[in-house]
TrEMBL record:
Residues 2-215 form the Glutamine amidotransferase type-2 domain. NCBIfam families: asn_synth_AEB. This is asparagine synthase (glutamine-hydrolyzing). Keywords: Amino-acid biosynthesis, Asparagine biosynthesis, ATP-binding, Glutamine amidotransferase, Ligase, Nucleotide-binding. It holds the Pfam family Asn_synthase. It comes from the Bacteria. One of its GO terms (biological process) is asparagine biosynthetic process. It comes from Dyella tabacisoli.
Length: 613
């Protein structure tokens, strides 16, 4: 895992711009703490920060093609290619020789052999920039599911790119301007493909190639979800899911550094850990879980959490023989200013949703990094197999909007509550959301003859995979990379996604429970307690003192008339929230508006944002 940056300009001489490129690359130091590299010619400059995972001695970047085609192309690459050994053998048969054991060299020589078509051969998570010296062309490629981030920004006669916005923002030619659409992307729980918070900055869409040359910029999809008939019976489907998932986990265990799993005791992380333990035997797999000291002492059942994670994680660890570690956090750690600053600097935007999960995930990953460099996560199973409640709520399924933003679920994603009525009117989130929903539905592939139920559930799955999952993958990437930890996501193996996307809903939901198909596929490696467990989301603190600390910070903001968000707030509502009693904080309460307001204020203060509203 690494951080990449680059700058192409056909009017400037990059020999005189290396200081800026170095600052762009340096901004990504936490993503790659082990090494730094810079490459340039007259019109292109590439930067790289390395987290050494495979071929620790070799694999330095940016990398030229070596003895074959040394003057043809150079790459800066973030991620892992899980099938690089298979590709290496194929390339050797074609006459290529290799000087390292790295997947980077395989990637570069695959480009020389197959051009951009090599992207369709890759199994992995990746974001890369290739400067093709033969055509004076920059090629940006992002993995199919968008596990690894990749941003770009066109200048008057060139283009900038980087793993995170901060790399682009480090270039003095970039304006930190945020318009209404940027705010809409911040406050609505829908991640619009390609769009970012900053004017003029875009993401490479998952499964896309972006090219930039003297002719200008072009974009092309090399992969997208397709609707195809599912011909396997139920037993074959279960077996196929099991085989693909087991193989994906096995491929993602490959590393020259310590590997572990993230284990909550839920179905998804338990399946990953169980397959990892099985594939790694007789060596023990190491696993980590997180919770809060206050939850361990006095857990209370709430609307979405029926039981604490710890007993289930311990049961799974015992069952598979994992070396398990529980990371327990205190609410005061979540409020620590230095931790909040690290979260903000990792995101380059406000953390409007997920609340205390941002700092708790950062603290968990920081602790894991003391023991491991790579961690396997269970993200994406809910989106693929239908795990969320809105997949099973008829009102949410039939609603003419994103299902997670219907009345039964939207309360978990509310961040607008403290904004002034005038600003809310300008944002007009309802219209923006309606337009984005319409755009998303137009993309959903159609299978002729499909039943109305399967057609709608295909739409729901597509919306979750393309508009919701990205928020979770971003959260995982930013918090893990902030401490130099690589998180891999076996459920994002494109073979699994493609296969399950076309499984009829009655097979995914065969017994009426969430993720029925996954349960069946992993049944033989799980203890009954895990197999029968009801879904429970990532733990959140129930400590009233956490909200008290947030309300104290809000009181300081309201009292400071120079605070950048002061004029954006509904002061009457803010005052009422500040006066909320200690007793009330023990009752179920959505902290979204409070968290959103404070994060927005920190971001505007630290990033000197030009808010054009």
């Amino acid at each position: 895992m690494c951080g990449i940056a680059g700058w192409v300009d056909f009017e400037l001489d990059m020999n005189f711009q290396l200081g800026v490129l170095k600052e762009m690359t340096k901004s990504l130091a936490s993503r790659g703490p082990d090494a730094e590299g810079i490459w340039h010619d007259s019109h292109a400059a590439l930067g790289h920060r390395r987290l050494s995972v495979i071929d620790l001695a070799g694999g330095r970047q940016p990398m030229e093609a070596g003895t074959i085609g040394a003057d043809q192309a150079v790459v800066t690459f973030c991620g892992e290619i899980y099938n690089f050994r298979d590709l290496r053998k194929e390339l050797q048969s074609a006459g290529f020789t290799f000087e390292t054991e790295s997947d980077t060299e395989v990637l570069l020589k695959a480009y020389l052999q197959w051009g951009e078509g090599m992207a369709t051969r890759l199994n992995g998570m990746y974001a890369l920039g290739i400067w093709d010296r033969r055509r004076d062309e920059l090629v940006l490629i992002r993995d199919r599911m968008g596990v690894k981030p990749l941003y770009y920004y066109q200048t008057q006669q060139g283009i900038l790119f980087g793993s995170e916005p901060k790399a682009i923002l480090a270039n003095p030619s970039v304006k930190r301007r945020v318009s209404l659409n940027g705010l809409r992307e911040i406050f609505d729980m829908v991640k619009t493909p390609e769009q970012t918070v900053y004017d003029g900055m875009y993401e490479v869409r998952p499964g896309y190639i972006v090219r930039f040359s003297r002719k200008g910029l072009s974009k092309e999809a090399y992969w997208s979800l397709q609707a195809t008939p599912h011909v396997d019976n139920y037993d074959t489907t279960v077996r196929t899911v099991r085989d693909i998932l087991s193989d994906a986990v096995n491929r993602q265990l490959v590393a020259d550094v310590p590997v572990c799993t993230l284990l909550s005791g839920g179905l998804d992380s338990s399946a990953v850990t169980a397959f990892a333990a099985k594939n790694r035997s007789p060596e023990k797999i190491r696993s980590f879980s997180v919770d809060f000291k206050s939850n361990m002492e006095s857990f209370e059942v709430d609307a979405v959490r029926g039981a604490p994670d710890a007993p289930f994680a311990r049961e799974l660890a015992r069952h598979v023989g994992a070396a398990h570690t529980e990371v327990l956090l205190d609410s005061s750690e979540l409020l620590d200013k230095s931790v909040r600053d690290k979260v903000l600097r990792a995101l380059d935007m406000p953390s409007v949703y997920w609340g205390d999960m941002w700092p708790s995930l950062y603290l968990l990953f920081r602790e894991i990094k003391r023991h491991s460099v790579v961690a396997l996560s269970g993200e994406a199973a809910d989106e693929i197999f239908g795990g969320y409640r809105w997949f099973h709520n008829p009102a949410a399924v039939q609603a003419n909007t994103f299902p997670w933003l219907t009345s039964g679920s939207a309360r978990y994603f509310g961040g607008l509550g403290l904004l002034a009525p005038e600003l809310l009117g300008q944002l007009d989130i309802e219209t923006y959301r309606k337009d984005r929903y319409s755009d998303a539905l137009k993309e959903v592939p159609v299978l002729p003859g499909e039943s109305a139920t399967d057609r709608r559930m295909r739409e729901i799955t597509y919306l979750n995979l393309t508009r919701f999952l990205q928020t979770l993958l971003d959260r995982n990437d930013r918090m893990s990379m902030a401490v130099g930890l690589e998180v891999r996501v076996p459920f994002c193996d494109h073979r699994l996604v493609e296969y399950v996307f076309n499984v009829p809903w009655h097979m995914k939901n065969v017994d009426g429970r969430e993720k029925s198909l996954l349960r069946a596929a992993a049944k033989d490696v799980l203890p009954s307690a895990i197999y029968n467990r009801v879904k429970s989301p990532y733990p959140a603190t129930q400590d009233p003192q956490y909200e008290n600390g947030l309300r104290e910070e809000l009181a300081e903001l309201v009292a400071d008339h120079n605070a950048p968000t002061h004029a954006l707030l509904d002061m009457k509502k803010a005052g009422a929230l500040i006066k909320r009693t200690e007793a009330a904080t023990s009752q179920p309460y959505n902290r979204g508006s409070l968290e959103a307001t404070l994060s927005l204020n920190r971001w505007m203060s630290e990033y000197a944002v030009d808010l054009a509203v």
